[in-house]
Give the backbone structure.
Amino acid sequence: MILFDLGLAVLVLGVAAWTIAAREMFSAVVGYVAYGLLLAIVWVRLYAPDVALTEAAIGSGVTGVLLVVASKRLSLLPQADAPPGRGLKRAAAALSVLVAGVLAAAVLTLPDPAPSLAPEADRELAATGLGNAVTAVLIAYRSFDTMLEKVVLVLAVVGVWSVAPDRFWGGRPAPLGPPRPDAALVFLARVLAPIGIVIGVQMFWVGADEPGGAFQGGAILAAMAMIVMMARLTEPPRIDSGRLRLALIAGPAVFLVVGLAGPLMAGSFFAYPAGFAKPLILFIEGFMVLSIAVTLPLLVAGPPSRKGEE
Amino acid sequence: MNDVLLTAAGIILMTVAAGLVRVLDGPREVDRMMAVQLLGTGGIAALLLAASATEVAGVENVALGLALLSSFASVAFVTASPGTAKRARAGER
Amino acid sequence: MSVLLGLFSLVAIGAGVFFFVAGTLALLRFPDSLSRLHALTKADNLGLGLVVLGLLPRAGSPLAALKLIVLWAIVQLSSATVAQLIGGALRRQDAAE
């Protein structure tokens, strides 16, 4: 087993180095997708299936598509061929080395055994009614952080939209697929999307007790929305749609409302009433799944670039 | 038996990882994409074997997630290749 | 019976490993992209299919076995589509050149 782990570690580092050294944008993107796949296997080896699921769903379903589409769109720009200047490269390298160095220092100076809150998290698990400690940490123990992370996702969409030219404001993002998609792709989208929706919802639902959860489920649903758009069975929505914006903020908004009701129900901000925690957690998570499933495809689709018919 | 399964998982993973040389070499973008596709399938097989050998809960769900999404990067690659994107822009102006 | 099933698992998984090795070798050694695509689909379909087949007797419950089969069917569907799409893209590229 140690041989397997060593091989895996060498492989991950090798692919990472190759991704940095690649001269063409597209090769780097492909290397990064491979890196994500390997990372998912690393997380499994570290007994963190929840993280592995997230990496698998985000890495191959969302960022893979995002980067491939971005590199293809960038390569259409005339100035894309010009490599970044030496100054920019050096600045990027310095920043990366700094971040990696601080992280390495933090890991290397950990006392042995490393401090852990895992026993405490496990001990209080019964109070939440959940079986999966990871979900308990995310939605109960540090719920405020999780809520803010979802706000960050909404801000990311606002950031993407903010680069839209004024004349297209309120319109649709560019289509994700070709004008006349291959019949095989249309077939794949028609068959895969319903299966994926079932699996996505199931991953959210079992997340209470087993590896899985709102983010993993939402990411898979988002990927299904993307394949339907890539096959041109549906178009990216107009960004001024009221329902779209409601779905976008539903997760953090419901989370915040429940958190604000905490002082009345349970005596403290973001506290859940005893015995009623699990239904409340699933209620919040349901809306979070919706928001995540809407947010990620919008990030991939990009800013609106056409007026779009009504 | 479990050792055999883990060894098989290791061989498959290391083999398809060797295929990543195609990502280095290309020569065409398609070849790079195919190497990643193979890595995805090999990763799924390795995960299933490891899941059966070690019985860590949820590993087969990771494999299921990967299976569902393994084709996405390749699909994006084909649907967003510059030729089609150019045609899309020309057609929809 | 269980010895036979164990043997069956070993043979199927061994064959699966073989197809992964063969597919990778072909991906590395075959001269052009279309032949490499042909090799890739073999590893995708047969390699994973045989591994799944070998793991079926070891599945804890009928539902777990069904999950394995569904997983393989999903990979079949998407890898066949990807092969089709990549083949089409190759043909268009070659026609353009």
